[in-house]
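Example record used in the benchmark description.
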Amino acid sequence: MTTDTKTAETRTFEADVSRLLHMMVHSVYSDRDVFLRELISNAADACEKLRFEAVSRPELLGDDPKPRITIAADPDNKELVVDDNGIGMSRYEMAEALGTIARSGTRAFMERVEAGKAAEDTQLIGQFGVGFYSAFMVADRVDVISRQAGSDVAFRWSSDGKGTYEIAPIPIEAAPRRGTRVVLHLMEDATSYTTPYRLEGLAKSQSGHVPVPITLVEKPGAEPRDIADGTALWVRQKSEIKPEEYTDFYRSVAGQYDEPASTIHFRAEGRQEYNVLAFVPGSRPFDLFDQDRKGRMKLYVRRVFITDDADLLPRYLRFVRGLVDSADLPLNVSREMIQESPLLSAIRKGVTNRVLGDLAKTAENDAETYAKIWENFGVVLKEGLYEDYERREQLLKLARFRSTASGEGWRSLADYVGAMKEGQKAIFF
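Model output (structure tokens):
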């Protein structure tokens, strides 16, 4: 890889990206609307990363401290722009983020699509870091212009999605003062995405929950108009939140496009104060059986994203998606401090008990829903019987088994014991 920042270079996408782009461009996915959600999510992540970095380096914010995302339409030129003032990318980061797919499971993702299961398309995008590439469903060329916070150089990444991309330096005045600008050169059959009412509707319905304000510029020269205020969903009262808002947030944070089977939203007060918004997916995530068995719960501190690698739940609950927002942890908490923090250990214990308690309530009050949860995740929950002796009794109550006495259905141990014949002293299997 060249380290010269003054020259342009053309590169070839790695093989998996090329295959993926081919599928995107040839309309494997029917729900093209998802591209806007993915670009807004990326922009929000960039703003959150800057907010975290600025805790120790406030100079990165300069005279522009408030995060924002701007969607700008240009109907005459058939262009759509998604702009943020977040952390930005260096030349190297552009190549890494936009030329490769980093998360595991990509091959399985594409093999499933190529096997003819395109009807499940909307459950696939976003699960393996492929969200950005959904832009090629509506654009025949994508330009990404970025200037990293604190840098005096800027670069443009450009591709038509047909196998190669170019990264080149650009004049600093042609770049954002900080952050990233994604320019979509729309296909002829996608120009309706420059229509203000459609853009506003999509942004509000899909991404109105992101913790960064969103503005809309309806045409070049028009004044920006606020369409989302950046209020984090998890700090709002449950009574104020509509079911569809929970679903949209779940899809964004989980990279899933199904309905959540269960939503867990609560605020803990007392010795520790934290908000939790977590979801049990309605279907199996593709990374459920990754050998690292890592969880996908994000850690925030006072609405600032810290990490998605804090092990906030035991590994046998790695299918749960969502976040914990602590009011007590320091903003500059390091990975080492996270692993050793007694405060985080208390949060982990509280969240784990609440998730298991919610599963128990679902099992008791909605056997049909719980049966689907068990069919999807029972094999993972059973790992806890061997790993978490402290909660083994809880987990045994959640466990379900096939039995000749129950036909095709599931039975709990309590069901089996309650139906044992007089004099029976053993469980037969």
